Structures are given as structure tokens and as C-alpha cells.
Amino acid sequence: MAPEHTRSGRRSQAWFGLDGKLGFVHRSKMYNQGYSASMFDGRPVIGIANSASDLAPCNAHLRQVADAVKRGVLMAGGVPFEFPTISLGETLMRPSAMQFRNLMAMDVEETLRANPLDGVVLLGGCDKTVPAQLMGALSADLPMVMVTGGPMLNGKFQGCDAGSGTHVWQFSEEVRAGRMSREDFAAAEACLSRSAGHCTTMGTASTMACLTEALGLSLPGSAAIPAVDAQRHRIAEQAGGRIVEMVAEGLVPSSVVDRRSFENAIRVNAAIGGSTNAVVHLLAIAGRAEVGVSLDDFDKLAADVPLLVDLLPSGRFLMEEFFHAGGLPAVIRELGELLHTGAATVTGRSLGENCAEAPNWRTDVVRPRAEPVHEAGGHTAVLRGNLAPDGAVIKVSAASEELVRHTGPALVFDTIEDYHAEVDAPDLPVDASTVLVVRGAGPAGYPGMPEIGNLAIPKKLLDAGVRDMVRITDGRMSGTSYGTVVLHVAPESARGGPLSLLRTGDRVTLDVPGRRIDMDVSESELRRRTAESELQGDAENPAPAGRGSGYEWLYRTHVRQADTGADFDFLVGRRGHAVPRRHL
Ligand code: FES
Ligand code: MG
User: Fold this and answer.
1) Residue nearest atom 2 of ligand 1, based on CA coordinates
2) Dihydroxy-acid/6-phosphogluconate dehydratase C-terminal domain location, by residue (predicted)?
3) I need a labelling partner for 331 at 20 to 30 A (CA). Which of 275, 393, 440, 508 fits?
4) C-alpha 503: how far from its chain's center?
């Protein structure tokens, strides 16, 4: 493309800088928006990839955030062009927003590559939108900064703070147990979402916003700013200015993120009590960046990191307090030498330099290392055993201490629908020692690896006061939930993982300290069951009806397993932003 860069060396000039018919066409049609010729004179062209959507309420306000980014781009001498991306509303999309993360990543990657852009500001917020945009942008490797949308203001209910997700799970169990009235439950519904923004707990959205910052891909301090705080718009404006500088510096994401950045993100995830979903997303993002990160890294690297941030679901507070405490820079400074402080960031300075002076105004929210919320080793444990040869994860800080070593009989459900149909039956064969298992919820099996892991406790046990049980699934769990739940079992049952051989009544042993998850079934019996299921074939044990065409087919056919991030096999890696051909 080099000869086409007629007026400057910028990528966008391969479109706007051309003379003759082609340059005419590229510029002329853009003039219909009222732009003047100087917009195309060689100044950096900055895309604003906006996932605002009325159907993704956590991202709806990104329209206003985009205006602030535009201001920053213009002030710095660039030209901003906003464009929409697919958006993924966690609460509305069926069968699971996760089924569309890779689709959104494809949209972002292809749109960046196909258009006359020199750099991009990514605007995301709700759970899957942030990893999807990062995955796409890292594969395209254009200069980029992410601006996340920020959390809502704290929910308020009956004089107390109430957190997104976490309190919903708690309230609905209270209603089932008869301790909360339906009227109060209905009243709570309107109290939890008080303003624009994403979930207020350290669920997946807040986690991914923090990890983006830890990776060095957003401006320091940006993750925790509430969506409606004026500071959110100021940092968006700054991001607009910074991306123009990054284009001039040629600072592409592949020179920002490396193995150190991902090690930092994994450690920060432990310190903030981040979502288990971050494991799947970071693995996928690392795959796009061509940085080697394995599932075991999440256990090994988190082993000496204490939980410092006292936020729901692992602790007490919500994102507004985290913001007032100083946000992620306070955590990064507190972690000190536990991080690679020399890792690069989009500011052009190192992570350590960005946070060297970061204050901590609320040591009850961001604890000093000497007084953590939870000692080191309390975060992600990666389990293996004859139930999960490729691994499974459990969030230790969300589990009950008395259950982290537990043996009990399995009660197995092939689908989440079966579970829902039977969970409240008075004669359900369970007691508190039962291990509840729901399979068929993996990436290919569901398809889309839904958040079904925090299975409701069976009604008869709930009535008897049981609040937690060992639960196992090849699906995921909402980042806002809690409980002794083994997640992301790989290989999943639908891909022939040993979870598919488990039967009701088999004894299952969870041993978190020993990092094991096993069924007490002999090798020979497992071989016999394998042979039997092969003999029975699909007729006796049909896979859930799946479409034989369309995106669902593509998803089921190409999705990888959870232990490598559930990306599509053909999307892993960096493809850059060169375009070999043009149509005119
Ligand atoms: Fe969008 Fe929680 S539902 S962030
Ligand atoms: Mg969520």
C-alpha cells in the first residue's frame, strides 16, 4: 500500500489521500455529512467503535461518551468517525450473550481493517462487549485505546446499598425461602439500576474494565469512574487526545501487551476478587495477541496475591466506593513488586509510572497488603482429575470453607432445563452432601456456555436452612454470584468429556487444596460406560437439537474449549490491518 500514501504516511491516506477517480469517490461521498476538505488532508483518522444500544442498557450512554471522545480527537488535531458495532446485552440476549462474543469480535476486527482508520477508541461496558472489542482490535493491531462505560451509581434498597446481580440472587433465594415478600422483591427491582452504566458489583463488567486497565489498554483510573460522573467524560476526552498521539507514535497494541501484561492482569484479577469469566476472556484475548497464557497460570500467578478490594460478591462495597477509594491505580500501587511495573501501557509510560503517586483514600475498600480481605491463595483454583482432565475452575473466595474438601453422591442433570423442572420437587433425592451436576452447558453443548453455574439450592434444602452446596458444571457462572461452584469443566460433556460418563449416585470428591475434582468410578467401569454410550449412540442420548446452518452451526463447529478461551479456532491470532485489494 505504500505508494498510495500520497500526502502522508498514514494508513487513511491510502483512501483519502489519493488523486484521480478513487480519491474523488472516497472523499466526495463523505462530504455528504458536511465535512470540509481539511478533514481529509492527512490528519489522523480515528474510529470510535461504539457498542451503544438500547438493547444493551449497560452501554446505552456510550453515545454521550463518544461525544467526549470526539472532542478530544478534534482538539488534538485528528478527525473522529464514530461507527456502531454489534452490542451484547447480557440480561436480554438468548440463549446466552456469550454465544455472540466471537461474532462481535469478528465485527470489530473486520470493520477496523476494512475502513480508512489510523487508530480506534473502543467503547464497551457490558460483560462480553469489552473482551469482544479487545479480541477484534488485538487481531487487527491498529493503535487503540479502550474507554469502558463505567458502573451505575450504587443501588439503594430499604436504606442499604444493593449490588447488581449479587443481591438479585440473594433476594430471589429469600423469596423462595419465604423470608422476603413478593412486594419487596418487586420494589427492589427498580432500586438496583439507578443510573446509566454497567453492574455495580465486581462482576464481569467491572472486572474486565479493571483488567483492561491492568493490561495497559485504557487510561489509568478509568475503570471505576461511575458512568454518570463528569470525570467519565473527561477521561473519554483524554482518550480521544491520546489516540491521536499514539497514531503519531505508531504505538500499536502488539507493542503494548506482552506476557508481562497478562501476568499483571491475572494477578490484578486475584487482588480485586474478579469474575471467573475473566479466565475465559483473558485466555481468548491472549490468543488474539499471540501471547502464551495457560489456564494453570491463573492458579500459579494468583497464589501469592491477597484479595485487597472489599467489593461484592467477595466483600462488602460497590464500585462507587472503589472509585472514591482511588480505583485500580490504588490497587496497582499497593500490589507493588507483585506486578511487572515496567509493563507498557497506552499512555507511553509504564504501568508503575502511571500509578506511582496513586492515592488510596479508603483503606477499608482497598486494603493494604498487610491487612487483606482474604489471604493470598484465595482466588482462582484450577482443578484437574478424572472429571476434568483439561481443567476446571473454582473461585475460592466465593466458596464455603466447609465445602472446599467434600465427598458426596452426584445428582446429575443433562440440561439446565431438566434442573429447573425438578429442583423444587419435594421428593428430589438430595441432602446437603449431594453434589449437584448440570452438564450440556459447555461452549459447544449449549451452545454458548451460559451462566447457569450458581444453581438454585433445591427448595426442600433451602427450607431446612442449607445455603450452599457443591455444584459442578461445564458452563459458567455470573461474575456477581457466589457459592462452592466448580465451573468450566473441560472437555465439556458434549465433546465427550468424562463429565458425560458421570451418573447419579456416583461419589464425587472436590479437593480444592489438593486441586482435584474426581469421580469415584474405576477405570474399567469408565471404559465400559464409554463403550456403552458409543453403542447407544445419539439415539439413546441425543445431543440438544442444534441448527445445521447459520451462526449457531458455525459456533458449535468452531468453538474451542473453555480452557483455551472458547474463541473460534479460525480466529486465534493476529492478522494485522493491511488490505491487499480495493474494489475500485
Ligand atoms: Fe451488563 Fe451486568 S448486565 S454489566
Ligand atoms: Mg454478568
Assistant:
1) 199
2) 364-566
3) 393
4) 32
Q: What is the dihedral of CA 258, 561, 209, 151, to 10 degrees?
A: 180
Q: Alpha carbon 46 to chain centroid distance?
A: 25
Mutate which of 51, 55, 58, 169 for ligand 1? The one with the most ligand atoms within 8 Å of its CB, which is 58
3-state helix, strand, coil in the chain (%, to 5): 40, 15, 45
Residues touching ligand 1 (Cβ under 6 Å) are 58, 90-91, 126-127, 164, 198-199, 203, 205
Query: Measured at the alpha carbon of residue 138, what is the angle toward residues 136 and 140, in degrees to the nearest 5?
Result: 70
Displacement of CA 263 from its chain's centroid (Å): 16
ipTM, 2 dp: 0.94
Q: Evaluate whether 48 touches 237 at the Cβ level (below 8 Å).
A: no
3-class DSSP state of 470? coil
3-state secondary structure of 345: coil
Rounded to whole angstroms, what are the CA distances from 176 to 26, 162, 185? 61, 19, 11
Atom of ligand 1 nearest to the CA of 89: 1
> By the 8 A CB rule, do 482 and 382 touch?
no
* The three cell numbers locating residue 252: 500499536
